[in-house]
Amino acid sequence: MRRGRFITLEGIEGAGKSTVVAALAAAIRARGLEVVTTREPGGTPLAERLRETVLQRGSEHVAPETETLLMFASRAVHLDNLVRPALARGAWVVCDRFTDATRAYQGGGRGVDRTFIESMARVIHRDTEPDLTLLLDLPVAIGLERARRRRMAAGETVADRFESESLEFFARVRARYLEIAAAEPQRVRLLDATQSAAQVAAAAVAVLETLTAGDGSGSK
Fold first, then answer.
1. Which of 22, 67, 118, 155 is the most buried (most CB within 10 A)?
2. CA–CA gap between residue 19 and residue 25 (Å, rounded)
3. Count of structural domains, the chain
4. Is the pLDDT of residue 214 over 70?
């Protein structure tokens, strides 16, 4: 059986990844292919509990390296229990964030050593790497304002550990994302997330055609 494809979405808060995940999933299903949508950190019951540990703001100090280890612990559980089994049976996996987020948030934002992050990635990923990554890029101020409005609409009054970070932090995160995109243009496709949600989703689906064209779309 042909292995499925692994698609990841990246971007700072407010980039609109959730909308694009839904659009990609619909486009893949329309081609007669199985699709699994998921997120990181999280994606399985245990990984979701680790997500809560990472995101909740508590009284104890969490060092950047500790945060990085928690991210990779959640990722290992996610890969072993959801992503790899889905890919092995031929399903396509669309994931909201993956290791590029660790490179950007913990590496760029927190200043965690790149060598440390990449050594963890080699151990945890093994042979599982994204076939395509869509980076939804927009200015930090716009993204954070969108995220604030989203929280208000959902009745959420407390920002998580990342949403409460400074503009300078997110500027470093965005810069690292753009650096990754420049270094790996074949894998990472940059999308202008300042456009409307419908326009960004349409652009993402257009990029998806580069993968579906040779994958026997229309039959499982």
1. 67
2. 10
3. 1
4. no
The rounded Cα 127 to chain-centroid distance in angstroms is 18
Looking at the domain assignment, is residue 1 inside a domain?
A: no
In terms of residue numbers, what domain contains 111? 6-212
Q: Which two tokens stand for residue 18?
A: 């959730």
Query: Residues 125-154: pLDDT tens digits?
Result: 999 999 999 999 999 999 988 888 887 777
For residue 219, being part of any structural domain is answered with no
Q: Which of 194, 104, 195 is nearest to 142 (CA)?
A: 194
d(CA 22, CA 145): 22
- pLDDT (0 to 100) of residue 215: 59
The CATH number assigned to the domain holding 122 equals 3.40.50.300
| Residues 143 and 13 sit within 8 Å (Cβ to Cβ) | yes
Tokens at residue 86, please? 């889905």
Is 218 inside any structural domain? no
Backbone angles phi, psi at 4, to 5 degrees: -70, 180
pTM (predicted TM-score): 0.91
Region 81-90: mean pLDDT is 98
Q: How far apart are alpha carbons 198 and 172 in whole angstroms?
A: 28
